[in-house]
Specification:
Blueprint: H1 2-10, E1 21-24, H2 29-37, E2 42-45, H3 50-85, E3 111-119, E4 122-129, H4 135-156, H5 162-177
Helix pairs in contact: 4-5
Amino acid sequence: DGIELRKALLGREGYKSIPFLFLTARDQPEDMMTGLLLGVDDYLTKPVIPGVLVQKARNLVERCRASEGRSRQELQQAVESVTAQLQPEVPRLQGLSFVHRCEPLGVRGGDYCDYIELADRIVGFALGDVMGKKWGAWFFSVAYVGYLRSVIRSASASLTAPAAVISRINDLLWQDLR
């Protein structure tokens, strides 16, 4: 029955947030209360007017879509805020000018570029991209870019030869993979 189905879904991690609308012949207050305590989105008793059922289902779908849209927008704003803080400072060296342009194809957050001043008139450039543009890559990339930037700056603080800097970065990253 619907109550047992709802309980089973709540017991499974991937199914807890599925929107749920009860359509049942159980019209006693305690049955309704049981359903509502299980977090159902609506509880309809039979007989039901078909148009009412269809509209309630449409409303539920629209609420879910709107909620998902708000969540995506909030996450996008958070990622853009953090990403803006990670924008590189363009070095100023006499006789040279640097310009870069980084335009993400889709969701912002997985791209990384930075300038690293290694020594007088020696500038390194780091470039990276997190593969995959789904939610997991999004969350991962923002945290990882900050981590990577720290590793690169740490490795380049005492070294000036590009090969030595890259070797030190590799060593530091490898230590964290163990």
